[in-house]
Amino acid sequence: MTQKNTICLWFEKDAEGAARFYAETFPNSKVTAVRKAPSDFPGGKEGQPLTVEFTVCGIPCMGLNGGSFFKPSEAFSFQIATDNQEETDRYWNTIVKNGGQESNCGWCKDRWGISWQITPRVLTDAMAAGGAEAKRVFDAMMKMKKIDVAAIEAARRG
Prior knowledge:
CATH superfamily of the largest domain: 2,3-Dihydroxybiphenyl 1,2-Dioxygenase, domain 1
Number of helices: 5
CATH architecture of the largest domain: Roll
Oligomer: single chain
């Protein structure tokens, strides 16, 4: 690992499966290394994958198979910016239909419990505009699970 700062995600036992799923789902993503445990460890045995180095949309990450001591939390999420409804649908549906679950306001969880915000740029642009436009868009978003780009655009216009 050559990065000075890397996101480390705790998995119960399937960091490699998660990393491969992310690499297949998102552009500029790949698995770069799988490191095997040199001896038994809590939740695993010698020779099993212990850490997995990967990137998600160019961001370096490490998955640690640490056992069931800690669970993922919404306090950490990946936020993926999308350019249109098709891209939003593709990522959302891939995560949710692979054992994940929907949440509110563009958030979902993958089957490993990692949270994702699938966020169309039109939403972040409208929120950055501030004022009445941001309020209308925020109010519209609060009623959504997956973000509806057309509804956000309509809310922007008032």
